[in-house]
Amino acid sequence: MAQCVQSVQEFIQDSFVPMIAVLCSKEAERVTRKNNLNFAELLRPFCRLTSEGHIRDPNNQLQTVKNLRICVNNVVTSPCPTTAALSPAQTRLLSEVVSSCQPQEGAAATAMKTGDYNLNLSVTTPWFEAYRENFLQSMPAGDHEFLNHYLACLLVVSSTEAVPVEQFLKLSQEQHRIQHSGEYTNPKWFIPNTLKYYVLLHDMSEGDEQRADSIYEDMKQRYGPQGCYLLKMNSHTSSAEEDEQIPDPWSQYLHKNNLRNQEMFDVTPAAAENSVGATEVDSGNSADGQGVSSSLETHPLQLDADSNSASLQTLDDDIVDLKKGGRDSDSLGSGAGGHGACLTLSDHDHIRQFVQEFTFRGLLPHIEKNIRQLNDQLISRKGLSRSLFTATKKWFGGGKAPEKSISEPKSTCGLLYPPEAPELQIRKMADLCFLVQHYDLAYSCYHTAKKDFLSDQAMLYAAGALEMAAVSAFLQVGAPRPYPAHYMDTAIQTYRDVCKNMVLAERCALLSAEILKSQVKYSDAATVLIKMTSEDSDLRSALLLEQAAHCFINMRNPMVRKFAFHMILAGHRFSKAGQRRHALRCYCQAMQVYKERGWSLAEDHINFTIGRQSFTLGQPDNAVMAFRQILTNDSRQTATQQAAFLREYLYVYKSVIEGNEISLPQLPLPCIHSSTTRVYFGHERRLAEGEKQAATHVSLDQEYDQDLSAMWCHLEEQLVASANRGSVPINFQPTQCCLNSQTDNLRHPLAVVEEPIIVEVTFRNPLKVPLALSNLSLLWRFSADVPSKNEKQTGETVTNEDTPASELTQKADIVTAEVITEFHMGPEETKTARLKLLPHRTGQLNIVGVIYNLTSSSSGETTLNAQETQIVDFFPPPGQQMMDLVVRGRQDLKIQGPRLNLTKEDKMLVRHGTDRRLDPIITPPMPLMEVFFLQFPTALLCGEIRKAYVEFCNVSSVALCGLRVASTHPHFFTFGSQATTPFTPPSPASAESCSAYKTFATPLQPGSVASEVLVSAEDFSQASGVMEIPISGSTLQPGESTQLPLWLRGPDHEGVHEINFLFYYESTEKGLKISHRVLRHTVFICASRSLSVQASACHSSAPPHHSSDDTGSGGTLVFIDVENVNTSEGGVREFHIVQVSSSSQHWRLHKYINPDKDKDCKLSSRERAKLCFRATRCKPHKATSNTVEKYTFADLNLGNELIISSSTPCGDFFFRCTPELQQGDLASPSNKTQGSVLSDNRGSDITSIAKKCNELDLNIIVIWKAYVVEDNKQLILEGQLHVALQTIGKEASSLTPKEEAQEMVLLKFKSELPPPVVMPFPELSQLIKTNLHYPETFTHPFVQDSLCLVPVTLTLSNCSLAQIDVVIDLRHRSTSSDSVEVYSSFAWVGQSQYKLNLRPQEVLSLDLRACFFRAGVYNLNTPRVFAKPADQSAMCESSQQTASPALIIINNA
User: 285 or 716: which carries more pLDDT confidence?
Assistant: First the structure.
């Protein structure tokens, strides 16, 4: 239980005090009324005695009476209700007492930490103490006990009466008549011989003091000095100073005096004059006042199904009543004026002295005398008759019933005793002893009476005796016996279950709980209190449940959840009792336990009740806060329940903002994911128009990709560097058209005036019911750079946050906000809204939030069954349209930047950076370009050439220039070269076939020599892959558009390729905040396989012929294998190889030497063809120093058309697809002079010598046509493939080997052996080329001559540019597998070893002779040739052998 101001002993003593009645004459009443008091009220503040009294018990032992208090009341003869229940007036009064005693507004709560709970609780409950005090003092008097029966009567007469003694006589007779005539059941008197105490009241301001003294002397003679008293009062004179000094001790007792008079008047109008009531109220003013007392029948907040038809709207009237009731109660309390205005401090002392005199000299002796008399009577009566009576009952089976198990009597309360019954005399004596604090004697008497009552089955009497016996045992000094708690439990059970008397049961429970609490038995106390809760009294149940909750929290191990649960129950019962403030307080205290603990349904119930109670109590802000919690948390309520929550919330919100039209409230629904807000600057992209395909650029429909963003940034850096002479400016920032949580938002984004800003806001509906939003738009603030005519100050901030509808048009001239008329959200749906702003002025724009109308969607609504839930029990009345529940509100967009993690402080604390994506700077107009593509394919064959068109449109009011483009695949497209595009006009043949190439119709001539063209690489190459777009005049005026051809080449590898273009352009006006703009375009090309080209080259084995056509070392043979690897997916029938071209600085294709008939190759699916060409070095006069950088293009056509490979697009794609050429350009000058350097430098690298010997540097271009059937039409596709032959003897392919092949290599756990030292440089085997000249057949008559000598010529050619030493060894016998098949053997005759020295590119012949012994087939390729550079040691010697055998046939003649 909560802490109380009084101790338990003081509480019990004050609960049972001697009762004194008052009878006043009219004149005496008039005298006391001067002080706005009657006589009983006059004495009330002085009824507690400050000094000790004494009394002697029947054993003549002196007993001390400490801290005694008496209760003085006017005689009320109205019929009193039975003790089983309180009257309606008393019930209303108790309700008033509780409602008026509220916790103070800033009262400090006690902080309490229990486990992981941090609670703030109110330790004291003054409303419970006030209720308990008033309940105990308003209990009706019963016949089974005498504690609240009157012991004495004060007869008060004024000294101004003509004959005061006659008045005393009349009052005495009146008292006797009331007590003994039998006409009145109330008041009840303790003993027949009631003490009469005569008080003469003398008004010092009116009467004669001497007369009063003489009358008093006469009274003492008549009634004895101990039976009368002269009380002098009203000695106050009018003085302002004294007026301020005299206190008013009556205010705390009599604050509700008039209200109580009114309550009692409702019951007994006739006795209202003399009646003050039987209660004391300790309370302040109440705001709930009559609003609660007027609604006892049906409470508007009752939480059962009967009140489901009520709503918050019906409670508006109650709020008005509450306010009115508060004013009425205030007027009642203050209208009575001050108390004791005619009394001085000495008068206060007189009154205090009178009370002491009456108590010590009149009351206590009277009680002592009656105790003695009762004791003597009981001793005398406990004679033969009593003993016989008891014995007879024992013999006939009467016996006494056990104390703890009470058998049910025949009647409800058992038998009734007559007033003179000896059992009642024992009880009377016990009560007298209890009132004067003689607890030992009281306990023995109660215990004796309890046995007798139980023997007689007088259950009501027995329960009373058990109750008081337990209390007496507890109050005994020194505690001679333990507290019999079972006595109390039996008494409560008997009162409640047997006697059906809840009032006495409640009193017994209150006493028992206090005693148990004092013994730290909080669990038992809580059990007692909870058992007393019932449906007959909501107020009592609420108060006791609250005290039980405090018991749980005050235990040694606090039971926090039990505390919260019982506080909820208490709040529920307070609500049913009309105690709204107390209900709200209980729910708020319980919320501390349930909040954020996963008890979502309990939280919803508590929040809903708090919101409802706060609203009815006129606290709309608290109501709104509670409703926000219900709606924003992820609720587990049913859809119907949530719909009811939402309707209640909208109604509360609407009533809150009706009087506040200035600032819009913050709405909790729907939830906004601020971090996912995206901002897009610029117009939304237009879709394709007819055949035109618009550039994709950036849109809100695209997902953000960090890698893609980095790629676009890299392309933009290339473009910016190209526009700024190769360097990127320091202040360069990549363009970000769409900002989100992953982009860099540290700087203010730049927007352009008259270009829209689109904000994508993500809404989430947490409820299971649909939401309807309307008139959704953005809130903004704008600070202009330059003031307009309408603005007086520079930089004045304009906003549309609190703008009435009439001024929206005026502010639309600055920023136009698009309004979404309707925005519906389904249950638990996450949906994005794209809201648009159009700025018309330059300056700083801040996007603050969103504004909208919120209503609950009426679609799919169902009526709530009252039995389905107990949380929602009232709705707006059916007559109210749902459209009325529309709330206009806002939500702010507060975006938190990324968490900082750089410094130590950042890591230790939680700090977030700034995010300025919603704070753009509006800049002056900029050019805006749109790009469209025409005839742009989506699928190509590998290497296919296709011509498309691109259109550039300037859709802004500003001219643009500096148009450039960069791409992730620069080899995929070309705009053509200015130098080569007009090289030759298109022929009619090319126009007929719509070829992308420039062609000439030339008849095919057998053995024709290739045509050659010299082209500079600078005509094609672009620095860093950035292409300047050749628009006429290099400027695009506003509204102007231009169209350019665009050649495309299919990627070399099959699959889907993502190709990105980034177009760059600038404004013709310089110095703007935005230096340039970019436009993105992404295409996906599906490439399918076409042809596979493999090429290889080898030195020609033919002997050199020194002719003008064949200079150098005799030329090189080039073999080209072409395979159709197409799988006929695209309807390709066959491929035609129409031309083979070459491009190189040093070599060229010379002749087509295929042995097959001269016609173009046709390849069907999976077919393969082999072409053979002879390549020669370029003519010397074309390799002069002036034309070092020129490339020689040689074209060998295999059909009827000659394609100019050096022009656009063939030449463009050649240079783009072979980037290593451009790297080789830089090294080409040194290649020419390398021979001279090597000849002079003895220490040159042997590897470079060998590589230079085998360098070829010949690029092959294979041009093909494919015949495709599509839609019953035959189309001709064309394309080109490139093969770069770098080294003689090494095969090159148009397709690079796939990476998967590398993954197939088996793991090797042993390290590979080092290569043999003998052959460190296999390239040296190519230094010397050998050739054997001999007759293929030779006939010799072996019969005549056994030896056959055949002349053989060995030709040696130095292929390198260095001096070579050659060693020829004829003694070598071949053991290779090729020569095993040759069974015959022969021998070389003559010199067996030669040592020669060959100059660079020298050709030398040796005459040899071979000797044969018999006919057969012989391999002459057995000489072993060693070659090494002249300046190297012998260890670098390597064998030079020709791979192919040289066979000779020897015939016998």
Answer: 716
Question: Which amino acid is residue 459, in one-letter code?
Answer: M
Paired with 1447 in beta bridges are 1419
Spatial distance between the Cα atoms of 70 and 1376, rounded to a whole number of angstroms: 141
Q: How many CB atoms lie within 10 A of CB 291?
A: 25
CA distance 1365 to 1367: 7
* Number of residues assigned to the chain: 1453
- Which phi and psi (to 5°) does residue 738 adopt? -130, 120
- Give all strands of the β-sheet with 1116-1124 in edge-to-edge order: 1147-1152, 1168-1177, 1116-1124, 1091-1099, 1292-1293
Q: What percent of the residues of the chain are helix, what percent strand, and what percent coil, each to the nearest 5?
A: 35, 25, 40
Residues 6+ apart with CB under 8 A from 908: none
CA dihedral over 743, 745, 751, 757, signed as positive or negative:
positive
Tell me the residue ranges of DSSP E strands in 576-690: 671-672, 678-681
Instruction: Work out the average pLDDT over 187-202.
Output: 91
Which of 485, 380, 471 is closest to 433 using CA atoms? 471
Sign of the dihedral through C-alpha 36, 41, 45, 50? positive
- How many Å is the Cα radius of gyration of the chain? 59
User: For residues 1113 and 1104, is the Cβ–Cβ distance under 8 A?
Assistant: yes
216 alpha-carbon distance from chain centroid: 87
Counting beta carbons within 10 angstroms of the beta carbon of residue 1220, is it exposed (0 to 12), middle (13 to 18) or buried (19 or more)?
Answer: exposed
Helix ranges restricted to H, 358-416:
364-381, 384-395
Q: Which residues are CB-neighbours of 921 under 8 A, at least 6 positions away?
A: 748, 749, 750, 751, 843, 844, 845, 1073
Q: Where are the alpha helices (DSSP H) in 55-152?
A: 88-100, 126-137
967 pairs with which residues across the strands?
A: 1061
Q: Look at 290-299, 453-462, 1435-1444 and tell me which has the smallest mean pLDDT.
A: 290-299
Q: Distance between CA atoms of 837 and 819, rounded to whole angstroms? A: 10
Predicted confidence at residue 531, as pLDDT, reads: 92
Q: What local confidence, expressed as pLDDT, does residue 1217 receive?
A: 76
d(C-alpha 216, C-alpha 203), whole Å:
14
873, 307 contact by CB (below 8 A): yes
C-alpha 657/C-alpha 511 separation (Å) is: 50
Q: Could you tell me if 232 and 215 are in contact, meaning their C-beta atoms sit under 8 angstroms apart?
A: no
pLDDT at 168: 92
Q: What is the pLDDT of residues 511-528, one digit of tens each?
A: 999 999 998 999 999 999
Strand pairing report for 750-752 and 1393-1398 = unpaired
SS3 347: helix
Using DSSP, state whether 1433 is helix, strand or coil.
coil
How confident is the model over 87-103, as pLDDT tens digits? 888 888 888 888 888 87
DSSP state of 498: I
- What pLDDT is recorded for position 1083? 92
Residues 6+ apart with CB under 8 A from 776: 819, 820, 823, 833, 835, 850, 851, 852
The mean pLDDT value for 1397-1418 works out to 88
796-825 burial, b for 16+ CB within 10 Å, e for fewer? eebbbeeeeeeeeeebeebbebeebeebeb
Q: In angstroms, rounded to a whole number, what is the distance separating the alpha carbons of residues 253 and 102?
A: 17
| Res 1351: pLDDT | 93
Under DSSP, is residue 11 helix (H, G, I), strand (E, B) or coil? Answer: helix
**Token code pair at residue 1353:** 């010529």
Distances (CA, A) of 228 to 153, 168, 197, 555: 12, 11, 6, 54
Least Cα distance to 589 among 104, 128, 123, 127 occurs for: 123
Q: How many CB atoms lie within 10 A of CB 869?
A: 16
